[in-house]
Amino acid sequence: MLKILAVDTATEACSAALLMGEQVFSRFEEAPRDHTRKILPMVQSLLDEAGITLEDLDAIAFGRGPGSFTGVRIGIGVAQGLALGADKPMIGISTLAAMAQGAQRRDGATRVLAAIDARMNEVYVGQYEMRDGLMVLTGEERVIAPQVLAAEATLPGSWHSIGTGFTTYAEVLTLAEQQVVASGAQLPMAEDMLPLAKAAWEAGDAVPVEAATPVYLRDKVTWKKLPGRE
Protein backbone atom coordinates (compact mmCIF):
# COMPACT_ATOMS: atom_id res chain seq x y z
CA MET A 1 0.00 0.00 0.00
CA LEU A 2 1.49 3.30 -1.14
CA LYS A 3 1.93 5.92 1.59
CA ILE A 4 2.86 9.50 0.70
CA LEU A 5 2.90 12.54 2.98
CA ALA A 6 2.49 15.97 1.34
CA VAL A 7 3.25 19.35 2.93
CA ASP A 8 2.76 22.82 1.52
CA THR A 9 3.49 26.29 2.88
CA ALA A 10 4.22 28.12 -0.39
CA THR A 11 1.34 30.61 -0.04
CA GLU A 12 -0.82 32.03 2.75
CA ALA A 13 -2.16 28.50 3.21
CA CYS A 14 -0.57 25.91 5.47
CA SER A 15 -1.59 22.35 4.68
CA ALA A 16 -0.59 18.72 4.96
CA ALA A 17 -2.13 15.55 3.59
CA LEU A 18 -1.50 11.82 3.71
CA LEU A 19 -2.21 9.17 1.11
CA MET A 20 -2.59 5.62 2.44
CA GLY A 21 -3.63 3.36 -0.39
CA GLU A 22 -7.03 4.73 -1.39
CA GLN A 23 -7.48 6.74 1.82
CA VAL A 24 -6.71 10.45 2.08
CA PHE A 25 -6.26 12.37 5.34
CA SER A 26 -5.84 16.13 5.19
CA ARG A 27 -5.35 19.30 7.20
CA PHE A 28 -5.65 22.89 5.95
CA GLU A 29 -5.51 26.35 7.50
CA GLU A 30 -4.89 29.87 6.27
CA ALA A 31 -1.93 31.00 8.36
CA PRO A 32 0.06 33.67 6.47
CA ARG A 33 2.69 34.19 9.16
CA ASP A 34 2.37 31.02 11.20
CA HIS A 35 3.60 28.21 8.96
CA THR A 36 6.56 27.23 11.09
CA ARG A 37 4.37 26.76 14.18
CA LYS A 38 1.52 24.90 12.51
CA ILE A 39 2.95 22.57 9.84
CA LEU A 40 4.67 19.99 12.08
CA PRO A 41 1.67 19.55 14.41
CA MET A 42 -0.46 19.06 11.28
CA VAL A 43 1.88 16.33 10.11
CA GLN A 44 1.86 14.59 13.49
CA SER A 45 -1.93 14.81 13.63
CA LEU A 46 -2.20 13.08 10.26
CA LEU A 47 0.20 10.31 11.23
CA ASP A 48 -1.64 9.76 14.50
CA GLU A 49 -5.00 9.59 12.74
CA ALA A 50 -3.68 7.07 10.23
CA GLY A 51 -1.85 5.09 12.91
CA ILE A 52 1.54 5.17 11.19
CA THR A 53 4.96 6.80 11.63
CA LEU A 54 7.25 8.65 9.26
CA GLU A 55 9.25 5.46 8.83
CA ASP A 56 6.18 3.76 7.33
CA LEU A 57 6.02 6.27 4.46
CA ASP A 58 7.24 5.62 0.95
CA ALA A 59 7.95 9.28 0.13
CA ILE A 60 7.40 12.88 1.21
CA ALA A 61 6.00 15.40 -1.28
CA PHE A 62 6.45 19.15 -0.89
CA GLY A 63 5.08 22.27 -2.55
CA ARG A 64 8.12 23.37 -4.55
CA GLY A 65 6.66 26.72 -5.57
CA PRO A 66 6.14 29.13 -7.08
CA GLY A 67 4.95 31.13 -4.12
CA SER A 68 6.37 33.41 -1.45
CA PHE A 69 10.12 33.03 -1.05
CA THR A 70 9.79 32.51 2.69
CA GLY A 71 6.88 30.09 2.38
CA VAL A 72 8.60 27.96 -0.23
CA ARG A 73 11.78 27.81 1.85
CA ILE A 74 9.86 26.80 4.97
CA GLY A 75 8.04 24.03 3.11
CA ILE A 76 11.10 22.48 1.53
CA GLY A 77 13.07 22.84 4.76
CA VAL A 78 10.42 21.04 6.80
CA ALA A 79 10.01 18.33 4.17
CA GLN A 80 13.78 17.81 3.93
CA GLY A 81 14.06 17.52 7.70
CA LEU A 82 11.31 14.91 7.83
CA ALA A 83 12.68 12.99 4.86
CA LEU A 84 16.23 13.03 6.18
CA GLY A 85 15.19 11.80 9.60
CA ALA A 86 13.10 8.99 8.17
CA ASP A 87 15.44 8.24 5.23
CA LYS A 88 12.72 8.79 2.61
CA PRO A 89 12.88 10.18 -0.94
CA MET A 90 11.15 13.42 -1.88
CA ILE A 91 8.78 14.56 -4.62
CA GLY A 92 8.48 18.22 -5.58
CA ILE A 93 5.03 19.34 -6.75
CA SER A 94 4.25 22.64 -8.46
CA THR A 95 2.02 24.92 -6.41
CA LEU A 96 0.18 25.97 -9.58
CA ALA A 97 -0.34 22.35 -10.65
CA ALA A 98 -1.76 21.49 -7.22
CA MET A 99 -4.20 24.39 -7.54
CA ALA A 100 -5.26 23.20 -10.98
CA GLN A 101 -5.74 19.69 -9.61
CA GLY A 102 -7.89 21.18 -6.87
CA ALA A 103 -10.10 22.92 -9.43
CA GLN A 104 -10.64 19.54 -11.06
CA ARG A 105 -11.53 17.89 -7.73
CA ARG A 106 -13.95 20.57 -6.62
CA ASP A 107 -15.38 21.90 -9.88
CA GLY A 108 -14.76 19.12 -12.40
CA ALA A 109 -12.50 21.47 -14.37
CA THR A 110 -10.60 20.01 -17.28
CA ARG A 111 -8.72 23.16 -18.33
CA VAL A 112 -7.39 25.60 -15.75
CA LEU A 113 -5.59 28.93 -15.70
CA ALA A 114 -3.88 29.26 -12.30
CA ALA A 115 -2.45 32.58 -11.13
CA ILE A 116 -0.89 33.45 -7.75
CA ASP A 117 -0.25 37.03 -6.65
CA ALA A 118 3.55 37.36 -6.84
CA ARG A 119 3.61 40.91 -5.41
CA MET A 120 5.57 43.64 -7.25
CA ASN A 121 2.63 43.91 -9.70
CA GLU A 122 3.26 40.43 -11.08
CA VAL A 123 1.57 37.03 -11.02
CA TYR A 124 2.87 33.47 -11.16
CA VAL A 125 0.81 31.80 -13.86
CA GLY A 126 0.44 28.37 -15.45
CA GLN A 127 -2.04 26.87 -17.91
CA TYR A 128 -3.15 23.25 -17.34
CA GLU A 129 -5.20 20.63 -19.13
CA MET A 130 -6.56 17.33 -17.82
CA ARG A 131 -4.91 14.20 -19.20
CA ASP A 132 -5.61 10.77 -17.75
CA GLY A 133 -6.99 12.27 -14.56
CA LEU A 134 -4.07 14.62 -13.91
CA MET A 135 -3.53 18.30 -14.62
CA VAL A 136 -0.64 18.69 -17.08
CA LEU A 137 1.17 21.97 -17.79
CA THR A 138 0.83 23.37 -21.30
CA GLY A 139 3.62 25.77 -22.13
CA GLU A 140 5.59 26.90 -19.07
CA GLU A 141 5.02 28.43 -15.68
CA ARG A 142 5.91 32.12 -15.70
CA VAL A 143 6.04 35.26 -13.60
CA ILE A 144 4.53 38.14 -15.58
CA ALA A 145 2.61 41.39 -15.15
CA PRO A 146 -1.17 40.87 -14.95
CA GLN A 147 -1.54 43.31 -17.86
CA VAL A 148 0.55 40.96 -19.99
CA LEU A 149 -1.55 37.98 -18.96
CA ALA A 150 -4.73 39.84 -19.86
CA ALA A 151 -3.32 40.84 -23.23
CA GLU A 152 -2.07 37.33 -24.04
CA ALA A 153 -5.05 35.35 -22.81
CA THR A 154 -6.69 33.66 -25.79
CA LEU A 155 -8.43 30.65 -24.33
CA PRO A 156 -10.94 29.02 -26.68
CA GLY A 157 -13.53 26.82 -25.03
CA SER A 158 -14.34 26.47 -21.34
CA TRP A 159 -11.65 27.23 -18.74
CA HIS A 160 -11.53 27.69 -14.98
CA SER A 161 -9.50 30.40 -13.27
CA ILE A 162 -8.07 29.84 -9.82
CA GLY A 163 -5.75 31.69 -7.48
CA THR A 164 -5.13 34.98 -5.69
CA GLY A 165 -3.83 36.57 -8.88
CA PHE A 166 -7.39 36.83 -10.15
CA THR A 167 -8.68 38.49 -6.98
CA THR A 168 -5.75 40.84 -6.36
CA TYR A 169 -5.75 42.07 -9.97
CA ALA A 170 -9.44 41.56 -10.69
CA GLU A 171 -9.85 44.77 -12.69
CA VAL A 172 -6.74 44.21 -14.80
CA LEU A 173 -7.59 40.57 -15.50
CA THR A 174 -11.17 41.24 -16.55
CA LEU A 175 -10.31 40.43 -20.17
CA ALA A 176 -8.79 37.09 -19.23
CA GLU A 177 -11.70 36.24 -16.95
CA GLN A 178 -14.23 36.80 -19.72
CA GLN A 179 -13.02 33.54 -21.17
CA VAL A 180 -12.99 31.47 -17.99
CA VAL A 181 -15.25 30.36 -15.15
CA ALA A 182 -13.97 31.46 -11.75
CA SER A 183 -13.25 28.72 -9.21
CA GLY A 184 -14.28 29.35 -5.62
CA ALA A 185 -10.92 28.33 -4.15
CA GLN A 186 -7.93 30.67 -4.09
CA LEU A 187 -5.17 28.75 -2.31
CA PRO A 188 -3.46 25.37 -2.83
CA MET A 189 -4.26 22.37 -0.65
CA ALA A 190 -1.81 19.56 0.08
CA GLU A 191 -4.43 16.90 -0.63
CA ASP A 192 -4.43 18.00 -4.27
CA MET A 193 -0.70 17.33 -4.44
CA LEU A 194 -1.30 13.65 -3.70
CA PRO A 195 -2.56 12.48 -7.15
CA LEU A 196 0.38 14.29 -8.78
CA ALA A 197 2.83 12.84 -6.23
CA LYS A 198 1.46 9.34 -6.75
CA ALA A 199 1.95 9.65 -10.51
CA ALA A 200 5.48 10.96 -9.98
CA TRP A 201 6.27 8.05 -7.65
CA GLU A 202 4.98 5.52 -10.16
CA ALA A 203 7.06 7.20 -12.87
CA GLY A 204 10.19 6.92 -10.72
CA ASP A 205 10.53 10.67 -10.25
CA ALA A 206 11.18 10.70 -6.50
CA VAL A 207 14.61 12.17 -5.63
CA PRO A 208 17.04 11.96 -2.70
CA VAL A 209 16.80 14.67 -0.04
CA GLU A 210 19.84 16.54 -1.34
CA ALA A 211 18.35 16.76 -4.85
CA ALA A 212 15.06 18.37 -3.77
CA THR A 213 14.93 21.92 -5.12
CA PRO A 214 12.48 24.85 -4.95
CA VAL A 215 11.11 26.75 -7.94
CA TYR A 216 10.90 30.51 -7.51
CA LEU A 217 10.43 31.63 -11.16
CA ARG A 218 11.36 35.22 -10.32
CA ASP A 219 14.98 34.20 -9.63
CA LYS A 220 15.06 32.62 -13.07
CA VAL A 221 13.83 35.82 -14.72
CA THR A 222 16.27 38.02 -12.79
CA TRP A 223 19.16 35.73 -13.70
CA LYS A 224 18.35 36.03 -17.39
CA LYS A 225 18.43 39.81 -17.19
CA LEU A 226 21.87 40.05 -15.64
CA PRO A 227 24.60 41.41 -17.99
CA GLY A 228 26.13 38.55 -19.91
CA ARG A 229 23.36 36.14 -18.88
CA GLU A 230 20.92 36.83 -21.74
Overview of the molecule:
With 230 residues, the chain is an alpha/beta fold. It is built from eight helices and ten strands. The strands form two sheets. A five-stranded mixed sheet has the order 3-2-1-4-5, with helices on both faces. Helix 1 runs parallel beside helix 2.
Number of helical regions: 8
| Helix share, percent | 25-40%
Distance between the termini: 48 Å
Number of strands: 10
Strand line-up of the largest beta sheet: 3-2-1-4-5
Task: Please trace the helix and strand order, writing H or E for each element.
Answer: EEEHEHEHEEEHEHHEHH
In round numbers, the mean pLDDT is 90
Low-confidence stretches: 220-230
Instruction: Calculate Rg over CA atoms.
Output: 17 Å
| Main beta sheet strand tally, sense and closure | 5 strands, mixed
Secondary structure category: alpha/beta
Which percent range describes the beta-strand content?
A: 25-35%
Looking at how many chains there are and whether they match, the oligomeric state comes to single chain
- The 3D shape can be described as globular
